[in-house]
Amino acid sequence: MPRFAPCDGWPGAVGRAEEGVPLSLQVLVISDNGLFADYLCELLTVAGHQATSVTDGRQSQQAIRLEKPDLLVVAVEQAKVAALAVEQRVHAPEGTRNIPVIVISECRRLEAELLHVFDFIPKPLDVKRLLDDVAAIAGRQAQAGRHLALSDRQYLVFSAYILSCTGLHFESRNRAALDRGLAKRMSALRIDSCTEYLAYLKRHGEDRHELQKLLQFLTVGETYFFRYPSHFDALKERLTARYAHSPEPIRIWSAGCSTGEEPYSIAISIMEALPDWQERDVKVIATDINNRSLKRAREGVYTPWSMRITGEHHQRRYFDQVGESFIIHDDVKRLVEFSHLNLSSPESAAVHPQLHGLDAIFCRNVLIYFSPEQAVSMVGSFAAALKPSGQLFLGHAETLLTRSPDLEIRRQDNSFYYVKSRLRTGASRAERSPAPPAARARTATTPPAQGTRPEPQPAPLPLPPWSPPVQAAGPAERLDAARRLYDAEEFDAAYELLETVTDCPEETGALILMGFILAGKGLFQEALDSCSRAIELNDLLPEAYFLRGVVLDANDRLAEAAQEYRKALLLDHDFIMPRYHMGRLHLRLGRVREAAREIRNSIRILARHDDNGTIPFSGGLTRAVCMVQLQNALAKVA
Ligand SMILES: C[S@@+](CC[C@H](N)C(=O)[O-])C[C@H]1O[C@@H](n2cnc3c(N)ncnc32)[C@H](O)[C@@H]1O
């Protein structure tokens, strides 16, 4: 029986609160467990809200229509409940999209799917989190579904933050996806300011998996069975040549597997190349960053769109067709192991000890998410994870941009792929890691294992000329972006971005800017340390001495500060900021004439520049504004 039992209600009227007073919410609790529903109602009532409950899920829509609640708290008891059922339970009636929903459940897998809910609270229930959530909803008046387009500056801040946390590289073509993802998550969370959402993301990126939830909107999983068929032909040829007479284990990695079409196509190729596959130790390791895609991959149910180039023979042999759906056979499924993995996470290899000594890696149409530097380094790691003569398959657009000394390019029909060179194996991780004994026995200098036929070795193609990465996220561009963030006073975002600029000529610039950020936060010793690291790398950097001067100046060590400003000016006579600071320092010491002289010199130098760019280390002042300030300063002392 449905229960619309009002709990001991708080007598205050539901509706808009007076200014400054938190809103009392009308909450509808939906739970199959009457006791738990009562408990939740009591909690909410004590917190000053009006709560009613319904314990028959089928009646929830009617209850929503009648009660018109401000908030739904849905407790999902059974592990078998599908996310879709929860969504339907709460979102089916007209107009309910705008009602915030909190889901409480022990069934954690639901969290990755319920991306439109305000919060998913795992059981055992964290009461404080529930009450904090309800209070936050009461305090927010955000309009769900409101369109939010990021300003250029916000875009820069978000993409820098996401880059620093995940390695995901955003170009302007991804901007719409970021816009959409933010609009969805902010709407679910009833947050209507990007700054507030960024703070929430930083606070709850890990503990509430907010980063993971946002990422679901930012990665696009377009894929289909047997995409680039010649790649699968090349794989089959190698498998037959190498393993027809050898029982060695076979390991293939589909990195960025999306909804599973690629790893299942690999599994089918193995089954076709090696008819005795059932007696073999075969595994396709399929990973992706997107949990929703992984869930669909494990389910293995596909639309005709995914099968658009799959021939009838394959359809009949490896799928059951039910209505419009194609369901992959269990024997194909058993060869594939799906798991979550962020390719840019440094732990990726540790999480997957199986990811070495591999026969083939498919990482197609994934590198587009990374900066050119990351893509190059990732290809290097792939090379290290392959067996000698193992194959690397990249997306068409990615192939010609990539080059690693361990890889030789091969052509197969109208496609390219790479083969790990047998000659340069010394430094690779595959060789350093303990490989299975059979694999270890075969090196470039030892003959192939008995029964293994020599593999076909098509002549290597000449490599395309190497062109340095020119896209937006090289170290120089990251440093530049960090400077702009610094000028925009987005110090944390700038700092995070700077931490990614290491081991390159830009490192000194990054260390100095980090020093300025640390000094701005009052972390003077850390700022000096950062400065010293920069000077160790290059002791002719005027900015480094200026930074030292600023820190010493702030600590009233004026004589030492003056010395550092002088060093900066010796190295760069036209450097405005140390000159201006020198003037201020003179003034603090009562040396008015010297102060006026430095300010006048600064004005003269500034007057020689006719562009109106920002003045380095001035906190984003343009030349014109800086000129006005200097003239004002001069007026006070002259
Ligand atoms: C366009 S799909 C490619 C699917 C398949 N490889 C193909 O070519 O048909 C790109 C996939 O890469 C995944 N991806 C993006 N960034 C990733 C990362 N950092 N780690 C793991 N997977 C990532 C996305 O979630 C998405 O499923």
What does this structure look like?
The chain has a seven-stranded mixed β-sheet with strand order 11-7-6-12-13-15-14. The protein has 27 helices and 15 strands. It has 638 residues and is α/β, with parallel strands linked by helices. The longest helix has 17 residues, at 592-608. It folds into five domains: 26-139, 3-Layer(aba) Sandwich (Rossmann fold); 152-218, Chemotaxis Receptor Methyltransferase Cher, domain 1, CATH 1.10.155; 229-441, 3-Layer(aba) Sandwich (Rossmann fold), CATH 3.40.50; 474-522, no CATH class; 540-637, Serine Threonine Protein Phosphatase 5, Tetratricopeptide repeat. Bound molecules: S-adenosylmethionine. S-adenosylmethionine binds at residues 167-168, 219-223, 227, 256, 258, 262, 288-290, 293, 341-344, 364-366, 369, 395.
